[in-house]
Write a structure and sequence with these properties.
Elements (H helix, E strand, L loop, with lengths): L3 E6 L3 H14 L2 E8 L6 H10 L4 E6 L1 H15 L10 H20 L3 E3 L8 H12 L4 E3 L10 H10 L13 E4 L4 E4 L29 E8 L2 E5 L2 E2 L2 H14 L4 E7 L5 E7 L1 H17 L2 H19 L6 H13 L5 E8 L2 E8 L7 H4 L11 H9 L1 H8 L7
Parallel strand pairs: 1-2, 1-4, 2-3, 4-5
Antiparallel strand pairs: 6-7, 7-12, 8-9, 8-13, 9-10, 11-12, 13-14
Length: 401
């Protein structure tokens, strides 16, 4: 009996040709697992296409809510942003997809899992580290590391030769990845870092030129660092992110053009659209600024950087990520309240911040002198802080000026 291979299947150019390639080269039965992480595809059409190209079985996994609550929101609470800009949309989706792909393989008695990631990219690492953590006994097939195809043009030729219809073309050569959190763009004119993105490259957000001429305000409510409401209206996670995507997109929020350092050592250039995520990150930061004690807030910045790196490098299923989650959960106990943002032609500014756990005290911060702070105490405070400097100066050591 032929072996069973479970393929993480999207219906895009790469995975569309992988099904016939696997059958030709491995003489196997291919089970296509379609993960719905909010990419907005016609799932029925994707399923039909998988069967039409040779899948013996197609399984659809609705992962939208799990993707947000188990992966995106923990990263939001951690403040995870890679290299100052990237909100990790693709990076966060890969572990949840891989987890369910492994689950399908174990349930279906498959011996092998397969993916459509290239040998140059980060995604191969993210998928395969997840496989190794969750089911190291499974074999892995990565066609891009085996076949003779060298480019997306070669893939288009292969698709044409096998009668496979694909949405990509030689004119629309971008590689795109979409989920509830973002839409990414690579390839085409973006391969030259000197080129500006084409107006047609952006698919999700309006250009600032086309955004409304009046600002729009949006209030986002949080409970323990998790977003729960928009405009005072409680929403489930999927509806909340979808609504914020709409609001952000029409105001030209969330466009990022980034030259990034891939885990494999290559610098790559991509454009990302994360309208709702940009609003959530901005609001969450403001609420933390109001509620987190200074030393904890400063230390958490280090954790945020490490957390982003772990996610980007595909190290989700690791003890370190679990330990960092435990630390972050402690920091979020009092991150409850609301933040109102003003959106205008791609810009986000803060209108107000409110929390019953706020550490901001007007009687202390005001220029009006009150009983809560004795200014005379500052003299001794500064004298103590300056003791090492005075000691050093007294030794005659020259101080750089």
């Amino acid at each position: 009996m032929p072996e069973k291979v479970v393929l993480a299947y999207s219906g895009g150019l790469d995975t569309s040709i992988i099904i016939p390639w696997l059958k030709e080269n491995y003489r196997c039965n291919v089970i296509a697992m379609v993960a719905d992480v909010g990419q907005g595809d016609d799932i029925e059409a994707v399923v039909e296409k998988a069967y039409a190209t040779g899948a013996s079985k197609v399984l659809v996994e609705d992962l939208r809510e799990e993707f947000l609550t188990g992966y995106v929101f923990p990263a939001l609470q951690a403040g995870a942003v890679y290299e100052h800009k990237y909100l990790l949309g693709t990076s966060l989706a890969r572990p949840v997809i891989a987890k369910h792909q492994v689950g399908v393989a174990l349930r279906e008695g498959a011996t092998t899992v397969a993916h459509g990631c290239t040998g140059k990219g980060n995604d191969q690492v993210r998928f395969e580290l997840a496989y190794q953590a969750l089911a190291p006994e499974l074999k892995v097939i990565a066609p891009w590391r085996e076949w003779t195809l060298k480019s997306r043009e070669d893939c288009l030729d292969y698709a044409e030769q096998h009668g496979i219809s694909v949405t990509a073309s030689r004119q629309k050569i971008h590689s795109r990845d979409k989920n509830l959190w973002h839409l990414s763009h690579e390839g085409g004119e973006l391969e030259d870092a000197a080129n500006a993105p084409l107006d047609s490259t952006w698919q999700m957000t309006r250009s600032p030129k086309d955004a409304p001429d009046k600002d729009e305000q949006v209030q986002i409510g949080f409970e323990k660092g998790v977003p729960v409401s928009v405009g005072g209206m409680k929403l489930d996670p999927v509806s909340l992110v979808e609504l914020l995507n709409e609001i952000g997109a029409r105001n030209a929020i969330g466009r990022i053009d980034l030259v990034e350092n891939r885990f494999v050592g290559i610098k790559s250039r991509g454009c990302y659209e994360t309208p709702g995520g940009t609003l959530l990150i901005a609001a969450h930061r403001e609420l933390e600024a109001l509620c987190l004690e200074r030393e904890l807030a400063h230390f958490k910045q280090h954790v945020s950087l490490k957390y982003a790196e772990l996610v980007y490098f595909g190290q989700w299923f690791t003890p370190l990520r679990e330990a960092l989650d435990a630390f972050v959960a402690t920091t979020q106990k009092e991150i409850t309240g609301s933040v109102t943002l003003s959106l205008y032609k791609g810009n986000v500014s803060v209108v107000s911040r409110e929390s019953e756990h706020s550490l901001y005290r007007t009687d202390l911060s005001s220029f009006t002198m009150g009983d809560g702070y004795d200014q005379k105490d500052a003299a001794g405070f500064i004298r103590i802080l300056g003791l090492p400097s005075r000691t050093r100066a007294g030794t005659g050591v020259e101080v750089a000026r």
